[in-house]
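Weekly modeling sync, notes
Attendees: AB, CL, MP (scribe)

Item 1: holo prediction request
CL wants a bound-state model with magnesium ion before deciding which constructs to order. AB pointed out that an apo prediction alone won't tell us much about the pocket. Agreed to run with the ligand included and paste results into these notes for async review.

Input as submitted:
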Amino acid sequence: MKEVLTVFRAVLVRQLTLYRRYLFNTLSGLVTMYIVFMLLMTGARAIGGTTFMNGDAPLQSLVVGYLVWVFAMVGYQELAWGITNEAQMGTLEKLYLTPIGFSWVQGLLQLSLLIMQLGLTGTLLMFIMLTTGVRLQVDLVSVLPIILVTILAAYGLGFLMAGLGLVYKRVQSAFQILQFSLIGFLAAPASWGRFLPLNLGNRMLASVMVDGNRLWQLPAADWAALVFVNVTYLALGFVAFRFFEGKARELGLLGHY
Amino acid sequence: MHVALRVTDLTKTFGRGKKYEVQAVRGVSFGVKNGEIVGLLGPNGAGKTTTIKCILGLMLPTRGQIEVMGYDFHRQYRQLVRSTSAVLEGSRNLYWRLSPRENLDFFTGLHGIPLALSRPYSEHLLRVFGLEVKKDAVVQELSSGMKQKVAVACALALRTPVVFLDEPTLGLDVETSYELRDILKRLAREEGRTLVMSSHDMDVIQDVCERVIIIKDGSIIVDDRVDNLLEVFRTRSYRFTLSNGPGLDWHFDLGKKFPGLTVIPQGESMILEVTLPRPSDLYAFMDALRDQGLIVEGIHQEEPDLEKAFLYLVRKGA
Ligand SMILES: Nc1ncnc2c1ncn2[C@@H]1O[C@H](COP(=O)(O)OP(=O)(O)O)[C@@H](O)[C@H]1O
Ligand SMILES: [Mg+2]
């Protein structure tokens, strides 16, 4: 346990140092996210007309959907790109040579990134709410659990792509495509879409943030489905990653060959 | 415990099928005693990196047993990793956007060593490596020699009993290379650590290591103490001064019969350097010279160096 904390501290400090040292990048990332949302909103208004006026539910849902997408995308990217980058830079092997094991290192790294992402995305949300006049219920007790479970699927996809990227270098060019297909998952109709990543979580989050429901007021069946679907995606992605990692070991690809 | 590392019948084959198969390591076996400094010497592509990465589990061995500090590769991999550290890709093993000190803190933390325990020794290493003035600059801004030193320091900072260094002096200028070797020698001796170091440069191995394992095409061709090897070659290396040669029309294949033969024309005369393993070879060589009408003026037994021994052994293996 003590070892886990020491490793967690190490990865957290590394990430904080990088965020601070490259503060400009951190902030410009945030600004980009903000601008993308404003464009999205303008587009939605142009298409949807008055239904997307301030305070209307569709606009609020748009904000919630955007939040879910940002969280998912960041998680997905940090895994898929993060692992690929470390392989290319030559540091990945060092992460494997740890007594605690690579899976733990990666898990703790993602956790530290998530903590920082909560802060950053929280700031983004605040700006969006302030400048657009959209009001959302930010009941953290209800919001956080839904977000945390929902992005597990994104981690699953991240693991899958990272694994593929280790063995098949060319897959890396497909990373971006999947990133945007996440939007498709969000937009799918509830009937079958709930079995896709992000979809059900997005709906539940909207129910909390737009309609003001509390955690325990959501249907138990939804909760069960949410946990089951997302844990399954994570598990599948992780198993796939371990498979490709074994392949990479066999082929000697963890370095840069 | 006397044995730091035991490798038995290590084999690594990349690819499948006759056409694509690369036998990078072929049934390599060796042991390393606690506190020993061993060099893996071999030309590029000999299988040094593959051997080291297989021992560390970064590549999956096709066959063979590995034990580090008594820990079995398959059954006790975690403990095996805990007792080793490594420099694998030189400065590429670092985070270039972090400073030397931040890298040291990160990698020791990753190994489960709390800052309070790692810091004093990390500071010591920064001093020893002459990195103190640069300890807070980002690695990206350091010279390549300094980057390399930081990479080595990050491996040593874990204070593991066994340290692997894959081509630690690759790409360094001569001065930095010497400096790094001196530090390695000193630290290894002061702290009694086991060092396994690979290089394609015999000079580096002769300088740092007590024992050398020469690898060629994935197989060990020599495993001996460096001074033994030099001793053996001392009695086998000859330098012939001829009073004729360049003018004569000689086109014999002495080189094939006597591997490692070097011909140095010197105006009217000629110098031949050659390694003759058996006493009878000396006579055979003299006969061959006489057959060609070459006149021997003098014979010297040469001061050998590992480079000659290495070239001789590698060519003979061909
Ligand atoms: N990942 C790999 N896939 C296929 N062949 C490889 C791989 N890594 C090394 N090899 C081959 O294995 C042999 C040994 O390589 P290596 O261990 O890197 O040699 P060294 O480190 O002694 O220069 C070479 O022929 C090399 O081309
Ligand atoms: Mg190599």
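Recorded for review: Chain B has two domains: 3-226, 235-316.
Action items: CL to compare against the apo run; MP to circulate these notes.
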